[in-house]
Design goal:
about 325 residues; Rossmann fold; globular; alpha/beta
Length: about 325
């Protein structure tokens, strides 16, 4: 039974928030929840929760604001009060959507909040790869004075896999470098692509022609393992692969082999099949790959935007029965 928040006349509901960065850029998101009678249940570990840990926290919770923590069927089976999951970000591959739908739990995300952050990170990684900036920094700090000869992005070929909001934002930035841009997306908006100067092509043509291949598609059954040994073999030996999307899109064993064999020149990886990856992950021992801790969306601006949007999803859902960016809508007859 829900309790009335003292002195407010509002029903007090509980929201479990797992991302440690939630609300760290400004108090706006937490204030929104608290002013609407929500009791915030924090993540006690400060890190990514396992299904077992999440299962121990989910009982008696009306809403869940979740990051990359796995929300599987075992977690949802323990959720006796849960009405909505609000994803702190865009990708919902860590949530069992079928189980949520079966249990009548709504799922929403915040697809626009981190677009600029990830697009900026993508261009930054491309430049760092092309010019060996991180390796040059480490070498100089060791007291060496080596010359690192790289390649320019100017007027090179860029292949974007997934021309959604982030893919479009990357294309806009790449146009400033006069890059020739192609894209593979089965659901491409051809008018939008034309306006951006992007030519839709097959995945095979994109891989064979691009100097830089950047992944910006969601992880689904169709995209899992999309980039494997055969696809890496189509790429130029001088080409670079950039993944700020999801780890499962790339076959990591095949990528390691391609980097070791010189099948491609290098890669930048911000997402992994297992997160966090093991400390002895073979990618970490390679000189021609840049590895990041799934930080592409982490700017102060994006953190604030994601926090506010995720909180607004929860507040609006309980006020109106719906909210923006529903991935799994609530049952039509459900009452609040």
């Amino acid at each position: 039974m829900q309790e009335t928040a003292a002195g407010t006349g509002r029903i007090s509901r509980r929201v479990l928030i797992t991302p440690r960065s939630f609300g760290s850029a400004s108090p706006q998101a937490r204030r929104m929840l608290e002013e609407n009678g929500w009791e915030i249940v924090p993540n006690p570990s400060g890190g990514t929760l396992s299904p077992e840990q999440l299962s121990g926290l989910i009982r008696g919770v009306d809403a869940l604001i979740v990051g990359i923590d796995p929300v599987d069927a075992t977690v949802l089976a323990r959720a006796d009060s849960l009405r909505i999951i609000s994803k702190y970000g865009s990708g919902v591959n860590n949530i069992d959507l079928a189980a949520a739908r079966q249990m009548g739990i709504a799922v929403a995300n915040v697809p626009q909040a981190n677009v600029n952050a990830v697009a900026d990170a993508t261009i930054g990684a491309m430049i760092a790869l092309a010019r060996s900036f991180i390796q040059a920094d480490a070498s100089t700090r060791r007291g060496e004075w080596k010359r690192f000869t790289g390649t320019e992005l100017w007027q090179k070929n860029l292949g974007i896999v997934g021309l959604g909001a982030i893919g479009k934002a990357v294309a806009k930035r790449a146009r400033g470098l006069e890059m020739r841009i192609v894209a593979f997306d089965p659901f491409v908006d051809e008018k939008a692509a034309e306006a951006l100067g992007v030519r839709p092509v097959s995945l095979e043509e994109l891989l064979a022609s691009s100097d830089f291949v950047s992944l910006h598609c969601p992880l689904t059954e169709e995209t899992r393992g999309l980039i494997g040994a055969a696809q890496l073999g189509l790429m130029k030996k001088s080409a670079y692969l950039i993944n700020f999307a999801r780890g499962g899109i790339v076959d990591e064993a095949a990528l390691v082999q391609a980097l070791r064999a010189g099948t491609i020149a290098g890669a930048a990886v911000d997402a992994y099949e297992q997160e966090p990856p093991p400390q002895d992950h073979p990618l970490f021992g390679l000189d021609n790959v840049l590895v990041f801790p799934h930080m592409g969306a982490h700017t102060w601006e994006a953190i604030d935007a994601m926090s506010v949007a995720a909180a607004r999803n929860v507040v609006e859902f309980f006020q109106t029965g719906t909210c923006a960016n529903l991935v799994v809508p609530p049952p039509a007859a459900a009452g609040l």
